């Protein structure tokens, strides 16, 4: 009797142990190399980022994040976009809010191309990002290489992309309004002089 019960138990254990070929299928696929990226301008919008990187980037969003010790400004006129575009400048009195991504390393080169790194438009900078009650170290962001002395107004397209990214990714409402007002005031300031067109 005891022999029978142990035999049936043995059969039961075997039936719950899949063959080795099945085990391979059950194992999770190896994770690909990733890197953290902090977006504060048009790349906050995953739809616009997808246009450059060639795949949906919404799943790679971690959360809104904060870059302390920097301020936001339009210190570059980007001829490819025909617009003033965003930059960050060190300033211990303030901070910049944006979107923290964790992107596959295979998208790194495409991101550099988007930011005009090889042309000397932007360069990579590693920063610390405060996000979800923790600090992410060595996060990639991009800063303008040759900064203008004064800010240049964004065009309507860039204005809308930046604002849509900020709202879509859940940046604080007050920050979104401040961003809106900043861009709107720049447009108003340069509307008469045409500086944004001739920069």
Structural class: alpha+beta
CATH topology: Hypothetical upf0131 protein ytfp
Regarding quaternary structure, what we see is: single chain
Instruction: Find the count of extended strands (DSSP E, 2+ residues).
Output: 5
Order of helices and strands: HHEHEEHEEHHH
Cα shape? globular
> What average pLDDT do the residues reach?
88
Estimate nothing, just give the exact number of structural domains. 1
User: Mind telling me the CATH class?
Assistant: Alpha Beta
Low-confidence segments, given as residue ranges, are: 195-199
Give the end-to-end Cα distance, rounded to a whole number of Å.
94 Å
- In what order do the strands lie side by side in the largest sheet? 1-3-2
CATH homologous superfamily grouping: Gamma-glutamyl cyclotransferase-like
Please give the share of residues in helix: 25-40%
Largest sheet: 3 strands, antiparallel
- Summed up, the helix count is 7
Write the layout of secondary structure elements.
Elements lengths: L1 H14 L4 H7 L7 E6 L6 H8 L7 E18 L4 E22 L3 H7 L7 E10 L2 E11 L11 H13 L4 H19 L3 H4 L1
Antiparallel strand pairs: 1-3, 2-3, 4-5
Helix pairs in contact: 5-6
